[in-house]
Amino acid sequence: MILCLDVGNSQIYGGLYDGDKLRVQFRRTSQARASSDEFGVFFRIVLRENNIDPDKVKNVAICCVVPDLLYSLRACCQKYFGIDPLILRPGVKTGLKILYRDPKEVGADRIADAVGAVKLFPNKNLIVADFGTATTLCAITRDKEFLGGNILPGVRLAMDALESKTAQLPSVEIVPVTSGIGRSTIESIQAGLYWSNVGMVKELVAKITAEVFVDDAPLVIGTGGFAQLFEREKLFDHVIPDLILTGMRDIVQMNR
Is 109 considered catalytic here? Predict the structure, then answer.
């Protein structure tokens, strides 16, 4: 079995694969720093509560954009699973050709998303939109070339900025809306957050397509915590919440 961990700025998203089957999914905040023991006990309890013997885990893969957590997570894997985890970083085989000016700058989460998308949709041009703490769009060619993309504040980060940097604007629930006009402060914030992201995705997908995929339109894949929020707007050809875990599982198999 393969335990895959996506360590983001807000949370740790984990999944356990038995072959190609995703048996267990779980989430834990990553904002509260934890020791290797706290991580280890948490992971083993989660697996046991889902009727999985933790000792059956044979591989652990970590995709991490929070470097401060890597030491504790690696020590946790060594102590509680007897495994030296695969950490997605430069030098790990991914099957991608990274065309960034400096390939080492590409976030591990974006690489894992790209690998997962290529695995699920081979021989297709792809744009992957990942709605996490930051929202990212990545362009990948049918030849597995990672071209680059966009990085911008995520939905919740934008809301938190409004709340913390203004005197009178409150925190609101992030929900899909139908009207472009809010008739209260809360409705106005919700409409602004929702429709600005809809417009952003449409514009960036159109721009990327016109620049690099004009003769062969890409599939647009939505993933991340807020992707399903926009599902009714038909922004994506597919919404795959666990795309990054799929990518990490495939990377483990490439590096055995």
Answer: yes
